[in-house]
Amino acid sequence: MRSSIVPDTKCQGYRRPRHHSCRGSLLERDVARIFSLIGLRPSLNVRLDGHEIDILVAYDGMKIAVECKQYESGRLGVRDLIYEWATKKRELGLDKVLLVIVGCEVKPVNKMLTSKHGIAIWDENDFERFFTKAIEYREVAKDDVLRSIGIEPPMRLTKSSAEQELVEELLQPVAEEALRPAELGFYEMMKLVALLWIFLGWIFMVLWLYSPRLLSPKLSQCGS
To answer: What is the pTM of this model?
Structure first.
């Protein structure tokens, strides 16, 4: 009997088997595993205002609902599913909705319809690609998954930018030391100017106070 447990994600070269024969519960767990691998915390089978959501993911204050559908031949209803979730998105106050469709081809017209209603959609190929990338390149996969849902990932420093910031950080103390003598010279000069003005002020004050006394003997001699 085939196990429904996803193999250890540390196994190198692992590829998910095609999901034509899997059921919804297995698909939900595998999609939730993608979000877990990229560092998010998905919750399975969450009830929100009376509606059951296959996977609910919280990211940066946003609520992301994920609906997983395994379609059998002759039971195609992707268009109805899009309209259903466009309504739920408004009623439940969801920020993003992702539909994961497995077992049938998602036509371009349906992808255009999801874009019109602000809904993201993965077909089986998208699911396989994101699952594989989440195992092998988690950081890259995280950015790709977020973009596919319509969320712009946060900016990350490239290697060159990080190196440039490191050089600037190392050179900053040197630059500060180089500027310090000029700053000290300016302040020392201002201090000398202030002292000079104080000294000159005292001289003028002494002359103003004692000049009548110094001149009075001469004036008395002239008067005699």
So the answer is: 0.60
